[in-house]
TrEMBL record:
Lineage: Bacteria, Bacillati, Bacillota, Clostridia, Lachnospirales
Cofactor note as given: Binds 1 potassium ion per subunit.
Signal peptide (from-to): none
Record's catalysed reaction(s): (6R)-NADHX = (6S)-NADHX; (6R)-NADPHX = (6S)-NADPHX; (6S)-NADPHX + ADP = AMP + phosphate + NADPH + H(+); (6S)-NADHX + ADP = AMP + phosphate + NADH + H(+)
Residue span(s) of domain YjeF C-terminal: 220-496
SUPFAM superfamilies recorded: Ribokinase-like, YjeF N-terminal domain-like
Keyword vocabulary terms for this entry: ATP-binding, Isomerase, Lyase, Metal-binding, Multifunctional enzyme, NAD, NADP, Nucleotide-binding, Potassium
Residues that hold K(+) according to the record: 59, 120, 156
Name of this chain's protein: Bifunctional NAD(P)H-hydrate repair enzyme
Known function: Catalyzes the dehydration of the S-form of NAD(P)HX at the expense of ADP, which is converted to AMP. Together with NAD(P)HX epimerase, which catalyzes the epimerization of the S- and R-forms, the enzyme allows the repair of both epimers of NAD(P)HX, a damaged form of NAD(P)H that is a result of enzymatic or heat-dependent hydration.
Positions of the YjeF N-terminal domain: 10-210
Chain's gene name: nnrD
Length: 498
């Protein structure tokens, strides 16, 4: 597992390392600076004319130490201190003196010059409010420079908790972050502002943080195959689950097709699609492997029978919001006894009828809203959701006992009592209609093979992104179609057998 701390957790890990393990703060700062210098050298960055810009916190302290180390290598280093002397931490003050001791000079004004590299040590995880005034001007100005920009720990102006730009932020080419990649370097736009990220091990103990229920994690894509359900030699189609897909409306056969295809590609044993009569022939031809049952109008007994048959249900993709789909959804949500994925219009219906969710069982539902659907469900606007993704997904999963898969370029999976997952696979080729239907099918396929709702959701989101990455290799960022994500599933899963 990979863990992504927020600012508070990183500071707590620093404190633990200093106070309990007895590694002096100044020593950590020396290691941090050494790692930055080493990485700049190893990356072949032109160090012929260096500018290090420091703030008054410990991030600035790192900057002073970097400047000293570069100066000791007889390099041309200018140091600009733009913090407040009174606000300096004890360590930063000490580093300032050490820099001056080796003959370093400190300027208090930043001038646009032809630097080869600018080291950003203005703010790290201690950024506590939006950037204004002279800090704003300086960051904008160094973003105009042609120099390579190296951020220390995190680009100044990026929130370590959310990845949001706090007023303005340094656009780095490279970021050297200490011990763990902060959450703000995972979420966009922070992820883009950071450029290439290097993680330097400076000996901060993160064990406590890894055990913390509040910590956000991801799976190591290289260890993906260990997460998959087993395929046993002595098995038959019943071993891998009977899947009921309730999807598609007139003109939306594709949603049902993509759900079902993806569930099959992920390994489900038998898939039945329940859809409107108009889609029967289309789906039969598109996916002869699926059983098709069709309806003209709401038939409670038929739905009840299908629920009894199914080991897993996926409902909502392209079902439309109308009287019939509302009745089917209400019936399913109130009566389903097996794991159930609710997607798209299923969620839009629930947004208008939250009473359907009263009394639902815990650990049985996976909801897969994109941000707009999440906004409808929570009545929180999309911009606010973007600025507090983790909190919003967690709050929803606390309010309703469901696994909440809040989809975006970085999908978040929250479940009460579990650490929150954030996904790091996938790419912009997936920003196309139908991708979400594929995800709902993948998660359903994993649940059919016995994964619990939370694991099935996390592994499904990872697999979906990896399938997108495989599809991008084949078709490029512009041309991938949602159905080709299903080919990507096959490409990823077949690697397990290699
Ligand atoms: N020993 C350790 O702990 C280690 C820490 N390490 C390094 O320390 C970094 C964390 O250091 P930190 O906690 O001192 O905070 P930091 O990011 O320098 O910023 C705080 C300063 O910024 C100021 N400020 C904030 N927002 C502002 C704004 N919008 N506009 C203007 N000012 C603003 C704030 O001022 P104040 O709020 O007090 O007015 C304060 O002066 C971490 O990222 C890593 O690089 C490593 O060396 C490893 C060992
Ligand atoms: N830029 C991107 N990077 C990674 N994943 C993406 C990106 N854009 C979209 N996705 C993924 O594609 C899916 C889109 O889902 P959704 O918006 O519901 O599509 P649709 O409703 O058209 O099927 C989500 O799982 C999302 O995480
Ligand atoms: K910084």
């Amino acid at each position: 597992m990979i863990y992504f701390p927020d600012a508070g957790q990183m500071k707590a890990a620093d404190r633990y390392t200093i106070d309990v393990l007895g590694i002096p703060s100044l020593e950590l700062m020396e290691r941090a600076a050494e790692s930055c210098v080493q990485i700049m050298e190893a990356e072949g960055i032109d160090l012929s004319k260096i500018c290090v810009i420091c703030g008054s916190g410990n991030n600035g302290g790192d900057g002073f130490a970097i400047a000293r180390m570069l100066k000791e290598k007889k390099l041309d280093v200018e140091l600009v201190f733009i913090g407040k002397e009174v606000s300096c931490t004890e360590e930063t003050r000490r580093q300032m003196q050490l820099f001056q001791k080796v003959g370093g000079r400190i300027s208090n004004t930043y001038e646009e010059k032809e630097y080869s590299v600018i080291v950003d040590a203005i703010f790290g995880v201690g950024l506590s409010r939006p950037i204004e005034g002279k800090y704003f001007e300086i960051i904008e100005s160094l973003n105009r420079s042609k120099a390579v920009r190296v951020a220390v720990d995190i680009p100044s102006g990026i929130s370590a908790d959310t990845g949001c730009v706090m007023g303005t932020a340094v656009r780095a080419d490279l970021t050297v972050t200490f011990q763990k990649r902060k959450l703000g370097l995972i979420f966009y736009p922070g992820c883009e502002y950071a450029g290439r990220v290097f993680i330097a091990d400076i000996g901060i103990c993160t064990e406590k943080m890894e055990e913390d229920a509040e910590t956000v994690f991801s799976y190591e894509p290289s260890l993906f195959s260990e997460l998959l359900p087993e395929r046993k030699p002595d098995s038959h189609k019943g071993t891998y689950g009977k899947v009921l897909i309730i999807a598609g409306s007139k003109g939306m056969a594709g949603a049902a097709y993509l759900n079902a295809l993806s569930a099959y590609r992920t390994g489900a044993g038998l898939v039945q699609i329940y859809t409107v009569e108009e889609n029967r022939m289309i789906l039969q031809q598109l996916l002869p492997e699926a059983i098709i049952t069709a309806y003209d109008s709401y038939d409670e007994e038929e739905v009840r029978g299908l629920l009894t048959w199914a080991d897993v249900v996926c409902i909502g993709s392209g079902i439309g919001v109308n009287e019939c789909s509302e009745k089917i959804l209400e019936m399913v949500v109130k009566n389903v006894q097996v794991p159930c994925v609710v997607d798209a219009d299923g969620l839009n219906i629930l947004a208008g009828h939250p009473q359907y969710l009263e009394g639902i069982s815990a650990g049985q539902f996976v909801f897969t809203p994109h941000l707009k659907e999440m906004s409808r469900l929570t009545r929180i606007d999309v911009e606010t959701l973007k600025s507090r993704r983790i909190d919003a997904a967690r709050a929803f999963a606390e309010k309703y006992p469901v696994v909440c898969v809040m989809k975006d370029a970085r999908t978040v999976v929250a479940c009460a009592g579990r650490q929150t997952y954030v996904n790091i696979s996938g790419n912009a080729a997936m920003a196309k209609a139908g991708s979400g239907d594929v995800l709902a099918g993948i998660i359903t396929g994993l649940l059919a093979q016995g994964k619990d709702c939370f694991e099935g959701a996390c592994i499904g989101v990872l697999l979906h992104g990896m399938a997108g990455d495989a599809a991008k290799v084949e078709k490029g960022s512009y041309s991938v179609l949602a159905r080709e994500l299903a080919d990507g599933i096959a490409a990823v899963l077949s690697r397990k057998e290699d």
